[in-house]
Amino acid sequence: MEVLLSAVVYLMYRSDLLELKNSIFLELKNYSYTLEGERFVLDVVPLKENDSFYELMEDEKGLYILVQVPGVKADALRITYPAERYEKDVASIGKRSLLLFGIFSLFSMILSALFSFYALGPLRRALRLIEEVTRDIIHDLNTPIMTLLVNLKILSSKYSDEEITRAILSVKQLQSLKENLRPLMQERTRALKEIDVGEIIEDELSDLAKIYEGVPVEKELKVLKGKWDEEAVRRIFSNILENAFRHRRGSGPVRVRIEDRKVVVENPSQQVKNPGKVFERFYRESDRGTGLGLSIVKKFCTEMGWRVSARYEEGIFRVEVEVKEGEG
């Protein structure tokens, strides 16, 4: 709208300049008949080859016309509107144009603000409804999840059955999905403690290996300690590893390694068209998943000062997490 207003005001400015010149030209012609008053400057000048009479011209002295002097062929009467007055008139038009632009811009801003407020109202209500529904879902999931876990653990204490163990892990996955919804609702208070990233990855790999049986895993883990929020660190690597196992394609292994202060997770994958978008909330390249896992990874990494990136090369999807030293 500002660009449009600028164009409109500029055209108005040019139109006012043209109107000013036409007005001065008419005044010069009328003055040539009477030569009364001191508004214009009179001079007798020699005629040049291309000079014409009663045509508005301009030079450093101002706007002028040439008037034929009866009985004289070599000279002409020059009637000039001084440059100083003309420049003042042009400046006045410029100030008026700027004032109009300011008024129009203010009106445009007010109108845009009112329209935005009106247009964003439904969006705010929709977001508020999503927050309320998500909060209710999180609350309502707590009881059945805890009930399932308690009863499954009771069964596992009485019976040694791999199916019960897998059922417990599946419920834990459901609990993990519920926890992924929490960061969407509110900011967390971080509880810092000394933890080892390598141990957390080892724990997550152990659970995932029981759920995704037969998936080969190659790991090169080492101690990577620091003072961080354990829940956030666990959520980061749980989501990254879960994503690698879930979206693995072919027979290749899931590879996990720690290089200095960098954690690299790789898995064979179908082509990822937009690796840079995988950390955007609700972005998905397939029907599998919710599009929340990696967005939560990005959120926690940003809060902790870590850097996370993803890329796809020759059938391999790779996520890299650069772990910041110290507390985070």
Describe this structure as you would to a colleague.
There is one protein chain. The chain has 6 helices and 11 strands. It has 328 residues and is an alpha+beta fold. The protein folds into 2 domains: 2-106, no CATH class; 190-322, Heat Shock Protein 90 (2-Layer Sandwich). The strands form 3 sheets. Strands 6-8-9-11-10 form a 5-stranded mixed β-sheet. Strands 1-4-3-2 form a 4-stranded antiparallel β-sheet. It starts with a helix and ends in a 6-residue tail after the last strand.
Question: How many individual domains?
Answer: 2
Helix content, binned percent: 40-55%
Low-pLDDT segments: none
Overall pLDDT metric = 84
Please tell me how large the radius of gyration is. Answer: 39 Å
Beta content comes to: 15-25%
Trace the largest sheet across and list its strands: 6-8-9-11-10
